[in-house]
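[audit] Reproducing an earlier prediction to check determinism. Same input, same settings, fresh worker. If the tokens differ from the archived copy the diff job will pick it up downstream; this log only records the rerun itself.
[audit] input (336 residues):
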Amino acid sequence: MKILPYKTDSKYNYNHAIKNSYITNFSMYNFKDTISFSSAKVNKDDAFMLRNIKHLPCACCGKDMINEKDYVSLKSKDFQGPASQVLKKLRPYYKNMRQTEKTVYNILKRTSPKYPDADLNTLINKRLYYHIARLEAKQLQIINKAISSVNLNIKDQKALEKTMQEVHKILFVEPKDKPQKRNRILEEFYILRYQADEKNKIDKILKTIEKLPNSQNDVDSFIVKYAERGNREIGQRLLSPSLPTLDHIKPASKSGKDDFSNLIVLCSKCNNERDSIPYQKWFLIKPEMKKNIQKYMDKVIMEIKNKHLPDFEFYPASIKRTLEKETKGKYTIKID
């Protein structure tokens, strides 16, 4: 069983969109403190100092983060007016943007000369249907792969067919630019799992469905989502994944302490991706973190030696202990 699109107007046809796009050659690349300061043993000012070390690399991906002070200095008016002017203001932060945001920035930059008076929202909407068509093609491929990977009993097969009817409506009956389609598709499959007898087989489907593109890892999804957002939100979204955030080594959901001995700084993107995955498993998913957490700590130690982080002398040794404990000695850092 496959989900196939309805016959659509050529305006939404995938091949038509590619053929007639005025940009036909670009590369496709494939946020949050979790601290309650009112109850934590963490001083807000100390947390701010740690997060805002200049050129601080993310302990996970190793990329430098955008300084929080610079981010908050951008006012609403900085995101208004012609997109070319806004992009010029954001240019100093380009090197710190994450890959999806860099690609969107470059698309907008290349598109802006064609529409010199367009603001960010208008510019994104000029490209909207091209990216909807690309996104639909990717969604279809993933959904078809997911539902063809299992053989279900008669009851669950009928339930799956009903689910696919709802997914079909979401993708091809609803307005093309209606938001939150990914979330509602996922919701339909979660409902299916709740009702199914063979939950293990539905879990297999869900594992693939959860790979549907989202605005953090896919340019087309970003454009589609932010076509309905204001200029300030679009501009801030280009920067926010690169902001510094405090991450619990031992997750707060597993009784991890709100204490500097359990906190390191990750960019918002990596923090969101990690969620509450234990570090022992996270290091396997992100093997580059072994090198990058050392890079992060080397920078922190340098700041401590230069007296830019008063009262943090204990920090490197306490992080080393927590890291070794949480990974059962498999991972450590040098602090000498």
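[audit] rerun output stored. Observation attached for the diff report: The CA atoms of residues 29 and 65 lie 20 Å apart.
[audit] end
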